[in-house]
# Entry
Amino acid sequence: MKTKCRKKFFIFFALITLFLSLSSCDKKEEVAKNENLRLIIKDFEMPIYPDGTNISQVILKKGLIKETSYNVKIFYPAKKVLDFYEREMAQKGFKPLIEECYKYADRTWLTYEDMTLKGNPYVAQLIALWVDNLGEKKATLIMLYFWYGNQQSIILNNNSSLKVIFQVAAHIDLGG
# Structure
């Protein structure tokens, strides 16, 4: 009886050891992949529209996101800025990414009142997404105009203060 119990224990122990070692290999591969992505993202040359001012760059989420933000004096709807990014991202081997949750807002100006900011400014926002050919990196362009008061069309026609935010991050496919 003791021999059967010992055999079962050793088989159980061997299976647990095998499981833990496989799990550890997966974890090491994931860490190595993330480290490789960190280096790729860190070295990614961020495209900046030629007339950009007040340029700021940060690294977020332990190196898995690189962000550049800046201002551009250009009137709404800033098509030249979007066209610039379309060309730049194509040259870098990225293609447009239209995720299910963004398909109705992709590359379209939307307006809303931002209740999270002091004075509740109105915002016109355009978001464009790209993914690299390997599906490892995603780029996001966010263009924003802010104004106060409710005369939406008048303000947008006279607004030349564009805020540009551009991010490159590890791409996670959510299966959509």
Observations:
- The beta strands are 53-60, 65-73, 94-96, 110-113, 122-132, 137-147, 161-170.
- The chain has two domains: 1-43, 47-170.
